[in-house]
Amino acid sequence: MDIELTREYCLSLPLVTEDMAFGPECLVFRICNKIFACLNLDGRDIIAVKSDPDYALELRDRFPDIEPAWHWNKRYWNQFSLKGGLSTEMIKSLIRHSYSEVVKSLPRKIKIENPVICTVVQ
Q1: Number of helices (H), then strands (E), in the chain
Q2: Which spans in the chain are helix H?
Q3: Packed helices 88-105 and 3-12: angle between N→C axes, nearest 10 degrees
Q4: Average of pLDDT values for 41-60?
Q5: I need a labelling partner for 109 at 20 to 30 A (CA). Which of 34, 45, 96, 101 fits?
Q6: Distances in Å between the alpha carbon of 86 and those of 52, 59, 82, 117, 122?
């Protein structure tokens, strides 16, 4: 999966916004102002995504391409190269999982006001 398709996929999820909060080499994707993915634009095509802590460890054990995310809380965040051995479907699944993990942590009021955010299936 290339960097542009990854960006398009992230933006296709409900209510997602993007910004460059960390400078011109990092594209950040947010749901209700909470980060769920960070795409590195320095040519390495690495993305960091949030995960359930147990699932994060399981992914690192099962897939050599997935590792703890640099500059992120390693308990929750994994990173991998879009040029690595993960399939497009696996990458999309990890992005959806990250999105869903962030949605779970949103206040109930936000979820009620924006029910479409709760429809993304992992």
Answers
A1: 4, 6
A2: 3-12, 53-62, 88-105, 108-113
A3: 40
A4: 94
A5: 96
A6: 19, 11, 7, 26, 17
Query: For tokens 């960097």, what's the residue?
Result: 3
pLDDT of residue 96: 97
Confidence (pTM) = 0.93
Q: Is 79 in contact with 68 (CB distance < 8 Å)?
A: yes
Yes or no: say if 9 and 18 are a contact pair by the CB < 8 Å rule.
Answer: no
Place of tokens 């992914």: 59
Q: What does the block give as tokens for 44? A: 């390495």
Provide the token pair at 26. 């990092």
First CA to last CA distance, the chain: 18
Distance CA 51, CA 62 (A): 15
Q: Which residue has the tokens 């997935």?
A: 66
